[in-house]
Amino acid sequence: MRIGRWLNIGCVPVGLFVLALAVMSPAAQAQRQRLADAIVSNPGPLPSQATDAIETYVKTWAGQLLTAESDKQIIEARQQLLEPVQRQAPVQTTDVVRDAVARATAAMLKPAVKNSSDLARMNTMIVLAQMPTGDSAPTLATGLADKNRGIRYWAAKAVAEVSKFAQPGQSPFSNAQQQSLLDALNKVMPTETSAMVLEQMYRALGSLTIPAAQKSLLDILDQRIKLHVKQVSPGLRADAKGINNLYSRLIVQQAVGNNVNPALRQLTAVSGKYLLVVAKGLQADKVEQDLVPVCMELIQVVDDIFSNMLKQFDPNHMPGPSLVAAARSSQFPVLLLNTLDWVGDSSQNKPGILSTSQISIPMEDLTLPK
Questions:
Q1: Phi and psi, residue 246, nearest 5°
Q2: 217 Cβ partners below 8 Å, 6+ apart?
Q3: What is the spatial distance between Cα 42 and Cα 146, in angstroms, rounded to a whole number?
Q4: In whole angstroms, what is the distance from residue 42 CA to residue 78 CA?
Q5: Domain shared by 154 and 222, yes or no
Q6: pLDDT tens digit string along 320-368?
Q7: Structural contact between residues 218 and 266, judged by C-beta atoms closer than 8 angstroms
């Protein structure tokens, strides 16, 4: 089966895209040797000879990736573009060389977004995922909205992987570049149907450091609830991970003070909505069997969030009811009731989530979309 035939199916067989190898041609060997001869080992500025060699090398292989007529040629081009930036590459390179190669590659692969070949566009995203430069942002932003889910997967993965090249709390993407990526994610994530793609998009969104990214993540989680109302969808697993990862970040921020972070309160309300969706789905037996473990994972995540929030903001209160215990014993009506009044104060007509604390999520804030 041709690799290209895998591009439009429901799953993304990553191994096929990453591990398909091609035998290095004599032309590739010659190009690599010319690059190796021109590159100096010291970390200082590159001499013109090295800069010219890099430009020629990248132009050759980027051109082949974009114009190749066979899968083998595309894969060979990908391998050659990646070799100079890999730490264990046969061509021993410095950070200065890697940066120069990355910038040249990002520039020369910009036309890929208009390429008619799915495999060429996908391999472009795979290459850019290992290039330590924010210059790839325009190409990745376009890839996030590609019609092919495999390309969306790799574009999102690339955003997250490129972000790793920066120090913690920083980003290789400028604020403007991050905003363009955030705009793209805001458009596609609320309706993304592939669980594998969605998981990478959550990684991408979580890797952005601009303040607007955190608010967008909360809003996207809230918008995606509607996809699970009629029947829990496979994307729930990625949504649950998104909730858990965001909570981990927010609770660290919260540790610097005792006041409730508005984002933390919004996350509590969103978590409650997801729990309601799951509880209602389980009670009505509208959850596919293979998604039941995913629902249990989400219930555990939300139970942990509620319990930790209670300890932090209402430490003198007795422990709340175990949502996990109710779910494990299939007491779904109890689970539903406890969700609507988790450490609420029904005697004072204040049912809700943690309504006796600073969090105080009233029942009306838990209304599900139709």
A1: -65, -40
A2: 202, 205, 206, 242, 246
A3: 41
A4: 27
A5: no
A6: 889 999 999 988 888 888 877 786 665 566 678 888 777 888 888 888 9
A7: yes
87 — pLDDT class (breaks 50, 70, 90): low
What is the distance between the alpha carbons of residues 159 and 142, in angstroms, rounded to a whole number?
12
Of residues 209, 205, 210, the one with CA closest to residue 223: 205
Using N-to-C axis directions, what is the helix angle for 118-128 and 149-163, rounded to 10°?
10
**Domain that includes residue 32, residue range:** 1-163
Among 92-106, 110-124, 148-162, the minimum mean pLDDT is found in 92-106
Q: What is the C-alpha separation between 143 and 150, in angstroms, rounded? A: 10
CA nearest neighbour of 117 among 157, 159, 73, 160: 73
The answer to whether residue 64 sits within a structural domain is yes
Cβ count within 10 A of residue 30:
10
Is residue 26 located within the same domain as residue 113? Answer: yes
71-82 vs 26-38: helix axis angle to the nearest 10? 20
Does the pTM of the predicted model rise above 0.70?
yes
Cross-strand pairs, 350? 345
Residues 132 and 223 reside in one and the same domain: no
Q: Using CA atoms, how far apart are residues 361 and 355, in angstroms rounded to an integer?
A: 6
Could you give the percent of the chain with pLDDT greater than 70? 82
CA distances from 149 to 10, 197, 198, 203, 263 (A): 8, 7, 10, 16, 31
For residues 131-156, give the mean pLDDT: 97
Residue 266 within a domain? yes
Pair 85, 93: CB distance under 8 Å: yes
Q: Which two tokens stand for residue 146?
A: 């590609």
